[in-house]
Structure formats: C-alpha cells, structure tokens
Design brief:
The chain contains 18 helices and no strands. The chain is mostly helical. It folds into two domains: 122 residues, no CATH class; 210 residues, no CATH class. Helix 1 runs parallel beside helix 18, helix 7 runs antiparallel to helix 15 and helix 7 crosses helix 16. The longest helix is centred in the C-terminal third of the chain and has 43 residues. 15% of the residues are buried.
C-alpha cells in the first residue's frame, strides 16, 4: 500500500483546526452562560466578551474557509477563491518566480559561486562519461561531412577555399611549413628522390635521348657532321650528365649546398617580401581554381569521407579514440591553464545570462500551465495542507482578539456610565 506523503501535514492541520474550532465553541458556550447567569456587571462583561470573540472567530472562519471552498456548501459570491482562480493564481505565481526569484542579479551571484571548469573537467576526466560522448560526436561526423559536401555549403567552400588559402598570410604559412620541412632535412630527401627519378628516366630512355642528340647535331652541322660526330657527341653528353648526377652524393655536393642555400633564401623571401608573398598567393589561387585541381581535391575528399565513415562505424575505430584523447586533453588544459578556466567561466555565464529572459518567460508560462491544469480538489488540498495550519492561527487570533476587544468595550462603556 502506498504511503501518504502528506500524512503528517494532514494530522497537523486537523489538530490545529480542532483547536480553533474548540476555541470558537468555547466562546459560544461562554456567551450562553452569560445569558443564563443572573445579570451583573461581571456576567455582562463575560457575555459581551464571549459574543465578540465568537463573532470574530466566525468571521475569520468564514474568511479562511472561503479561500478553499464555499462555506457550508453555499455558493456565496467571492468564495472558493483558489479553485475558481487557479489559472490566474498559476500565472501570478509564475510571474513572481520569474521576476523576483530568477532575477539577473541573483543568477549572477549564483553563477559567481559555481566553478564551471571544475565541473566540466571532472566530466571530461571520467572515461565512462566521455566514451559515450566521443561515440556520439563520431556518429555526427558523417552527417556533418555530408552537409559540407552537398548543396550551397559545397559551392561556398569552392569559392572560399582559394581566397582563404591564397590570402595575404598564405606566404607566411607556406614559408613556415617549408621551414619545418627544411629543419628536418626533408628538402634533401625530396631532392634525392627527384635525382633518383631523373636517373631512372635517363636509364630507361637512353637510346631515345641518344637518337635525339644525334638528330640535333645533324640539324646544326649537316648530315656529314651528324654522321661523323653525332654518336660521339651523344655518348659524351649522356656520360657527362650521368657523371654529374653520380657526383651529387647524399653526404655533400656543391649542387646540394646550392639547393639548400636557395631553399633558405626563398623561404626568407616568402616571409619578408610582400611581392613574393603576393606572387605565391596568386599562384595558389590559380592552382586551386583550376577544374582539374578541384576534381582531384573532391576525389581525395570523397575517399577520406568514405574512410572516415567506415572508421566511425567501428566502435573501436581511430575516430572515437582521437575524440576521446581530445576530450581528455581538454580536461588537462582546464586543470592547468587559468586563462582557459576564466574563458570557460565567462562563456558559461554569458550563455546563461543570454538565455535568462527567454527562460524567465518560459518558466512563468510553464508554472502557469501546470497550476492551471491541476484538478480543483487537488490544488485546494495541496495548498490547504501547506498553509492551513497558519490559517487556523488566524482563526484563533481572531477569536481571542474579539474576546478581549469585546471585554475592553464593555469596560469602557461601564466606566462612561458610572461617570
């Protein structure tokens, strides 16, 4: 059997109501007694005081009862106020809570005592909490990518990408990227790769190159010279080229040193020379605006998107792990970086205060709707159980005040009569 949560309130209300009604009955009994006793100043005092107390008690009983129901069941106008006016009561209560409880000053004071970075940090440091969040974020990636790829977003990205990549700062960005590669010696690896490709090309096309050189000698010197010296010149040219390529060792060479010096000089010009930066920006815009490059870029994008979608579908995929690691790293940042903590606090406070007006209006409407939909008997019982005890004291006070006021009036009239 379900226990009544309002049982203690019900017992207390009945006890106080019984006391107030008993006091009212006592006033009625004293008034009757005053009429039964022989007439004297004292019996007159008792009778008048008891009648005033009884009248005061009845008046306050009527007022208290009229709040919740019709007194004696009679449909007297302006009684049963709370059941009849529950919609207006709900709206008034909602407005009061919204305008006087959830005020901007109170909300600011409460927000000032809340450590939002600590709350967020504890959440992000809990793997059991961040794992579902990482999976949810990873699950959103395909839809996000689809929204970027399709429709207006795709066309906008096609227009903006050349401008963003080819902006004024593109020279600095490219220069710094190249500086990082050069610092790690990657430019020499690229140089070695190009040389290797060149050697392979010469080896594979040596015969066709020899024939081309012979033909060039014949064109410049005539058929006789071409016949006599063409093969010799071709062999010497190819031999000299191969010899020079072999001399460019991975350890050191004049050509490698010259290439290294040229790369550093060009990187410095990209960072410091506005004209070279402008040339680079224009070149990048031209390359990125080319239809072939666009097609290639979107092909790469499509491949990356398919790979990402396959990885996201895997609960143990790399995408979820990367997002989890990012969330854990954010937790570390919030623990160690005071500036990040201040920014998070400011962001939360700004967000809450911006939402406050709308929340106040919605909160007032919500309270009004909830109270308005309550059953009349339910709202009457709920309110009476919570304030009825104090209202019974009104009945008691009214009875006692009436009693003593009636006695005072009787004594005053008696004093005037004797005088």
């Amino acid at each position: 059997m379900t226990q009544d949560p309002d049982a203690s309130l019900r017992v207390s209300l009945n006890r106080h109501r019984l006391f107030a009604s008993g006091l009212l009955a006592l006033m009625a009994a004293l008034a009757m007694l005053g009429y039964l006793l022989p007439l004297s100043p004292w019996t007159s005092l008792l009778r008048d005081a008891a009648k005033a107390g009884f009248i005061g008690g009845v008046a306050d009983w009527f007022a208290v009862t009229a709040l919740f129901r019709h007194p004696l069941g009679l449909p007297i106008p302006h009684t049963a106020i709370l059941p009849a006016q529950k919609e207006r009561l709900g709206n008034a209560l909602g407005r009061f809570v919204a305008n006087h409880v959830f005020t901007e000053a109170d909300i600011r004071r409460v927000l000032g005592n809340v450590d939002f970075p600590a709350i967020l940090r504890r959440f992000l440091a809990d793997p059991a909490a961040t794992r579902p969040l990482a999976e949810a974020l990873a699950g959103m990636l395909p839809k996000l990518l689809a929204s970027i790829e399709d429709g207006r977003a795709r066309r906008l990205l096609v227009r903006l990408l050349p401008k963003l990549v080819g902006g004024r700062a593109s020279g600095v960005v490219v220069a710094r990227a190249l500086a990082g590669l050069v610092a790690g010696g990657r430019h020499q690896e690229m140089f070695s790769f190009i040389l290797g490709q060149l050697k392979d090309t010469l080896a594979n096309r040596e015969e066709s190159l020899r024939d081309a050189i012979k033909e060039r000698v014949r064109e410049q010197g005539g058929k006789l010279v071409g016949w006599a010296l063409g093969a010799t010149v071709a062999n010497r040219v190819l031999s000299a080229v191969n010899t020079e390529l072999e001399r460019i060792s991975p350890d050191s060479s004049e050509m490698r040193d010259a290439f290294d010096e040229w790369v550093h000089r060009e990187i410095n010009r990209m960072e410091t020379d506005p004209e070279r930066a402008a040339e680079l920006s224009q070149a990048l815009r031209g390359v990125l605006a080319h239809d072939t490059v666009k097609a290639w870029a979107w092909d790469v994008w499509a491949r990356m998107r398919r790979a990402l979608e396959m990885d996201v579908a895997n609960p143990h995929g790399r995408s979820v792990a990367v997002i989890e690691a990012a969330l854990a790293n954010l937790s570390d940042v919030l623990e160690k970086d005071p500036q990040a903590q201040a920014r998070v606090n400011a962001a939360f406070q700004t967000l809450v205060l911006r939402l406050l007006p709308g929340a106040q209006a919605e909160g007032a409407k919500f309270i009004g709707n909830v109270v308005g939909t309550w059953d009349a008997a339910t709202i009457t019982e709920k309110l009476e159980l919570r304030v009825g005890k104090d209202l019974q004291y009104i009945r008691v006070n009214g009875t006692l005040v009436g009693f003593f006021l009636g006695a005072a009036i009787n004594l005053a009239l008696l004093a005037l009569h004797l005088s």
